[in-house]
Structure formats: structure tokens, C-alpha cells
Give the backbone structure.
Amino acid sequence: MTSHTEENYLKAIYKIAEKDKKPAGTNAIAKEMDTSAASVTDMLKRLSEKGLINYQKYKGVSLSTKGSKIATNLIRKHRLWESFLVKKLDFTWDKVHDIAEQMEHIKSEELVNRLDEFLGFPKFDPHGDPIPNADGKFTLRVQVLLSLLRKNDKAKVIGVKEHDNDFLRYLNSKNIQLGSELYIREKNDYDKSMIVEIDGEKVTLTEKVTKQIYVKKSA
Amino acid sequence: MTSHTEENYLKAIYKIAEKDKKPAGTNAIAKEMDTSAASVTDMLKRLSEKGLINYQKYKGVSLSTKGSKIATNLIRKHRLWESFLVKKLDFTWDKVHDIAEQMEHIKSEELVNRLDEFLGFPKFDPHGDPIPNADGKFTLRVQVLLSLLRKNDKAKVIGVKEHDNDFLRYLNSKNIQLGSELYIREKNDYDKSMIVEIDGEKVTLTEKVTKQIYVKKSA
DNA sequence: ATTATTTTTTAGACTAATCTAAATATTAAT
DNA sequence: ATTAATATTTAGATTAGTCTAAAAAATAAT
Ligand SMILES: [Mn+2]
Ligand SMILES: [Mn+2]
Ligand SMILES: [Mn+2]
Ligand SMILES: [Mn+2]
């Protein structure tokens, strides 16, 4: 049986490997877990004992098949619970992550599968992230950063790269949410900022922001 | 912040106090928690430090106001999640306790209150136990044990005293569930067993069983 | 009122998870 | 190729929660 803590380490390793496309280093894990490097080394030994990771001193770690399955299932649970919170309990997308962080550790195969069915087998969570199905398969999708679009382009918001709650609340304040239709009215060559029309309103978005929004170009 | 473990102790103390109507002893708690008496003494010291219980060596413990609030809220969450599992995810009443045992520890005031609303502010859980409201108030109700009824009485099942999953599955097999209408056709003076009609079918119930079922006499 | 039984507490040790500080390996810079 | 900087591991301690075995207190039996 994997402990709450072990599960969080596996998720952290998964996340880092996904981003960096190479074995996760001790410091990177320590930063992600907000803990000391020494603690990480201890845990890596334990996870390695359990056959959940491939670990050699000083060489960094990658998830084993077993570890990867657990991590994927955690992501599945996390994103399904986030979907539940938004779709059924009317939470906004900036309030669900911390709660799902707790709920993802509930252990019951049947629960997650019934929840999945209850939600209608959603493919993406409230932030546009793909939800692995019961076999651990993710749905892939073409998505492009808003920052890459040009003047007069139209697009639909389908996800966010950054998940920080303050960023999400910033988007709320600009009326930007999943499904929002955007129309690029101006693009400034110098600072890359954009004037975007949404629901008839024009808002200015800096490049820092447009680089965090995934869209699907509409025609 | 109260830990998962501390919460379970508070619940155990609450449960024992409710049943025995007197301070809970170390051994009783140890039995309820399936742990050693020594571990209990350790924990009682810690809970006492935190002001969650009233504790004096050798004298047994009772919950403080603070501890009682936490315990009641745990029961609220437990029973709301059980209701969710049965009403929304179609679990049977013999499958929900263990899952709710995990879910009751999710910390979010807003979550539990939104869940309550989503479920339509239910007053009783799938086993007929009262669900405390946001203020910790339980709904009281007249309920009598089936074993006390006599021949020709009619009654509706409104709860079970015993929560053991095997017992619940036994009731499933006899088609007895919350809301079932019962009609006592025979009562044996010697062994107190009953022949009860339910959905047109006659079933024999021993006293061991009828002493675990709460009913409301219908006229 | 002693003695026996039961209940509770203490003593001492163990594991998981954490920390700081120091030691060692690896990588980057000169 | 040394030296400097960075990354990682070890050493040693700490805390929550647990255990067994032994001591002490409370209760029951004679
Ligand atoms: Mn999240
Ligand atoms: Mn998400
Ligand atoms: Mn229950
Ligand atoms: Mn219940």
C-alpha cells in the first residue's frame, strides 16, 4: 500500500519528467514537494525499495511501470474530482485544486469509475487538462498558445498552462474562461501585448498572460 | 490542525460516550480504534494538550466543546458522503461506510456545505442515521425496534442499529431496505422470531435480526 | 481487610517522514 | 587539469504514532 506522502512524491516525479523530458533530479523534486533535498533522498530510497521508481545515486530518477500507473491514476482522480467540484457543486476553477489535492488520495477503484460515469466520462478537466481514462490513456488534442496568434485571428480558449489560483482569478476578472471565444483585434510588435475582444468587450493582455492560455484557432 | 488520526480518536470517543452515556475508558477506546491501550493513553495526553478532551489520569475522558464540534462535523461529513455515494453514484448501503471513512477527513468547509446543498439537505443517511446540519444540530425522530412489534402490526423500516456490512447484505438478500413496508404475520413466543411480509413475500426473521432494525409503526 | 483481577499508565523501542549541518560527487569555470 | 560551484547523499536528531512488557492504580472478590 502506498502512503499519502509516497503518492505525492510519485506525482511530483511524474510532473517533472513530463516537463523536462529527462530523469528528475533531487533538487527539482525537493522544490516541487516544498521539502529538503535530504528528505527527498530518503524517500527515493524507499520508493526504489518498493519498485516504484528507477533510481541510482546521483543519477536522478524515473518512474517504473508500476509507479507510472499509480501516478496516472492519481492524476485521473485529481482531475475527475476537480470536474465534479465545478460541474456538480458549482465551484469556480480557481477553488478546486487544493480540495482535489486531498480527494485524489481516496482509495477505491469503484468510486473513481462510478464518479467518471456520473460525470459522463469527461475528457478534460476544468483547466483543460486531459483526464486519463480507466486504462490510463490520455486524450490528445491540438492546442496552441494564444501568444502565437496574429491580428484578426479568432480562437476558442481550451486550457491554461499556468494553474496558479491568482492567475485564474485574473482571467475570471477579464471574463476569460474555458470555451470563451476570442478575437484578436490588435497585436503590439514591441511588447507582444494583444487587444482581444471577448463577449464584445476589448481587453488588453500582456505576453506573460497570452503565453499561459491554450486556444484552438477557429478557421 | 487536527490530524487524520486525532480525528479518528475524537470520533471513537464520541461514539462510546453516546452509547455508554459516561466518560470513555482507555480500553473501550483501544478496542474501538483497534489499537493498544498504551497508544490510547499517549493520544489522550496529546488531545488533552490541544484542549479537545477533558482528561484526568485513570478517570476516563469526555469531549470538550471544541472536540465535540470536530466530532460532530466528522459525522456530518461521513453521513453526507455516504448519502452522496448511494444517491448519486448508486452504491448499495453495504459498500459506502469504508469509503466515507476516508472522505470524512477532507478539509473544506465550503465543500461540505455545497455537498449538503447538492444533496438537498438530507436529514438522514443511507442507514437511517441523522445527519447534523451546518450548526451541528441533529434531527430527532421516533423510532422503535422491530423486535418490539406484535402480530398484525405494520411498520416502515427507517434505520438499522447494526452497521456491519454482512448484516446489511443479509437484509439486501431479504429485500429489506430503508423505506420497506413490513407486515408482521406471526410472532413466535418462544424464540421471539417473526414471520414478516414484505413486498408480498413472507420471510422469517430471528430476534437477533429484529433487534437491529428501527421502524416507524404505521397506524 | 486482604487478596485477586482488571484497568490504566509508564518505560523503552520502533517506523515513516521530516529537519539541519556536514561530507562527498558531479558539473562548470578558469 | 585544477579550482570553484552546484547537486546529492550521509549523519544525527526530531516528531507522530505505534508496539510490548512491566509497574501502578482502581475495582472486585473473598
Ligand atoms: Mn489541479
Ligand atoms: Mn486541473
Ligand atoms: Mn458509516
Ligand atoms: Mn451511515
Summary: The longest helix of chain A spans residues 65-87. The CA atoms of residues 12 and 125 of chain A lie 19 Å apart. Residues 25-27, 37-38, 40-42, 57-58 of chain A lie near DNA strand D (CB under 10 Å from a C1'). The longest strand of chain A covers residues 154-160.
